[in-house]
Amino acid sequence: MAKTDILIIGGGPAGVTCALTARKNYPDKEIVLVRDREKSIIPCGIPYIFNRLNSAEDDILPDKILEDNDIKLLIQKAVEILIDNKKVRFDNGEEIEYEKLVLATGSEPVFIPIKGVDKKGVFVIKKDLNYLKELREAVLEARNIVIIGGGFIGVEVAEEISRIKGKNISIVERASHCLETNFDEEFTKVVEEKLKEKGVKLYTGKVVEEIEGRKKVEYVRLDTKEKLPCDLVLLSIGARPNIQLAKTAGIKVVERGGIWVDEYLRTNIGDIFAVGDCAQTKDFFTRKDVPIMLASTACHEARIAGSNLYKIQNLKENKGTLGAFSTSILGLGLGAAGMTEKIAKKEKFDYVVGKAKVVNRHPGKLPGAESIFIKLIFLAGSEGYLLGGEVMGPESIGETINIISLLIQQKMSAFDLQSLQISTHPLLTASPISYPLIVAAQDAIKKMRDRF
Amino acid sequence: MAKTDILIIGGGPAGVTCALTARKNYPDKEIVLVRDREKSIIPCGIPYIFNRLNSAEDDILPDKILEDNDIKLLIQKAVEILIDNKKVRFDNGEEIEYEKLVLATGSEPVFIPIKGVDKKGVFVIKKDLNYLKELREAVLEARNIVIIGGGFIGVEVAEEISRIKGKNISIVERASHCLETNFDEEFTKVVEEKLKEKGVKLYTGKVVEEIEGRKKVEYVRLDTKEKLPCDLVLLSIGARPNIQLAKTAGIKVVERGGIWVDEYLRTNIGDIFAVGDCAQTKDFFTRKDVPIMLASTACHEARIAGSNLYKIQNLKENKGTLGAFSTSILGLGLGAAGMTEKIAKKEKFDYVVGKAKVVNRHPGKLPGAESIFIKLIFLAGSEGYLLGGEVMGPESIGETINIISLLIQQKMSAFDLQSLQISTHPLLTASPISYPLIVAAQDAIKKMRDRF
């Protein structure tokens, strides 16, 4: 196999989705997917290997979907892209020539330069089966666990471990609230309350000064001089795009960011694309570079690239990333898309907030009734475009946030929402009278009127 | 109270929603809602009064929301509209003058003219508290129950009663499958299988010839000469709009249909609107008159009317009804919006079908994993607009169908769907690689390509 049509480097969600999309769009092309690990991991599933899954192996991304779609899998480490020859070289010396190359090299978790970070017992969330097996064992054995970073990964791991008896879990977060990047305070407070009820200790607005211990970790010392005992420290403070391969080849990268890409995920070099965590994302509203690394965003990019590899045939440009996001913490579903109120304020948008709190059953006496809270941010004034939304409630909010995401992508307004055709059912949704998206839109319209 | 600004006749979801919308849009207007019953019922909740709710009273639509929004409630029966004087007369002789009048008079279940339909023991689903209390008692006492009509109400009631021990339930349906109006066969078959497993007997493709019995119902005799023993017969074969008040006043009505309305739910008479079941709905794609009577549709119309009573200020015309619909049968959620394949064929649309079957968790080994099946109908050719969608799976499909409904309303295509930004989470949704709407769209795109 010295030559192929489409070569994809990376076997995570972006690489796989790009391969599958390319297969559907180019049935006659040969597609090769190369990855450097024997097994691929489902990144978003990692927090659940500690309890709800029985092993790290349960979180493997199956290769069957590749076989079924006639995509050749190669386990090799790519070490060089020879741009002029349109070839990729592997660490065993072999080379493959490509017509189209897609970089889906992903990201690596970052280690912060704090003292003691190199001690035994400090872990990160690495998408590597053997590493995760080791981490799982260590977590099950540990009693005192300190998680540094209260973003969604830190919080998801904390909730998962809190389901195991006898664990003393602490989260240290520099910001004033956990999940602060994704949600406004009405939401983060509820999550924090839930975590605390479950016994997780929260140290928000605090910074780690040192990880102490002889050889192994023993204490995490904060800037407040508090010392948290620990057998295990988990760093979940973010990830860095894997751009070395691209950079070495002379492909353009964004300063302190990922690989530069255009609207169709094309790099500055002909016939080379980049998708997923390794590619730089831009914000939907401001076009600023943003460090959003979500599997859903990665797959979105992969689909755009995968259908436009040979010629632009799917004229749906990448409008920038909304960062649509959902999670589930101790039975509470949470979703966010577009701007939070905090961001809208910071970015100087003139906005109005609409809120609704309703029940997901009608009548409310039906079994399974749970509360849904929704917050929508609209551009103030006559346009009234939806800028962002946050929602919390039962499992169904995982799809509610996709409605919000779609409304934003379609540049829909509070007035559009007011006249939305929706479907409701006593056992599935809120009542048609009080469908939360519409009630929140009407709340915002009222506030817009009150302004004049 | 001989005069008011906005007068709404009818206290169901349409009337209430119109009043609430009017209140938000016209904070200074006096709003009066008149209804002829002491208590209002949540129509979609009625099937659940037999088991999951403890009484018919549990399904009352609370009046508190009216009080909270400064909407005056009047319990009176409107008997005449005096168009020239802009007055409504009640059966106690009193009159109210209005600036704007909204008719939300709803619908009544139909009795078919079969022999024996007047016997004791024959019921319909009437939105009347006392009638429903009586029906509930009768259902709890009955052993053999025959439901005539296998539309969604018939099926929902059958499933609810099947949760009570010792009931022998039969459904007689003229069409070849239950739920045939809303779903294609891939879906109706699954529902029928579930009902049969639960012991419900199905007589599809069969017609009732007579309801036999001395005074009380004893047998339902079919055209096949089968005789189904019964203590109770429930007719659920449809409803008829309540148009008498409008008709008598000389307001235009559609032949064998509801009150004629324009895009903004205005009748042919100035300052008189009609919303909900009593107003004639038109199909989204064909503009044909369709007998769709759903609370969600009614509320949609009520919001358009309620925000445009004095002047058109919400330029979102009523594009015609999609009939977005969802239900839940024995734990299986089902949703449909727009055209089924059957309808697309019948109405001579050139279409392509895309399908996907995925799991609502990733990895699939996570607890709560259930299968989602989705079927999307797209206009064939380069436009590729979404014409309709059907979905079945867990509770979250109640919102998935609202995404589908929105996609249709926005005239989005299979290509748009392919590049949709979505949010996914292991515990809430399918994986980002196999998000069902996108996979089904890609399946359709492939078929479109294969055509050329």
Explain this structure to me?
Two copies of one chain form a homodimer. Chain A has 452 residues and is an alpha/beta fold. The first copy, chain A, folds into three domains: 6-107 and 240-306, FAD/NAD(P)-binding domain (3-Layer(bba) Sandwich); 122-237, FAD/NAD(P)-binding domain (3-Layer(bba) Sandwich), CATH 3.50.50.60; 334-451, FAD/NAD-linked reductase, C-terminal dimerisation domain (Enolase-like, domain 1), CATH 3.30.390.30. Chain A is built from eleven helices and 27 strands. Chain A has helices spanning 13-25, 64-68, 129-141, 152-161, 185-197, 244-249, 295-306, 341-346, 397-409, 414-418, 436-451, and strands spanning 6-9, 31-35, 40-41, 60-61, 71-75, 78-82, 87-90, 95-97, 100-103, 107-109, 122-124, 144-148, 168-173, 201-204, 208-212, 219-222, 227-229, 232-235, 239-241, 272-274, 281-282, 289-290, 325-329, 332-338, 351-359, 371-379, 386-393. In chain A, helix 1 (13-25) packs parallel to helix 7. The first copy, chain A, is globular. Chain A starts with 5 loop residues before the first strand and ends with a helix. The mean pLDDT of chain A is 95. Chains A and B meet through helix 1, helix 7, strand 23, strand 24 and helix 9 of A and helix 1, helix 7, strand 23, strand 24 and helix 9 of B.
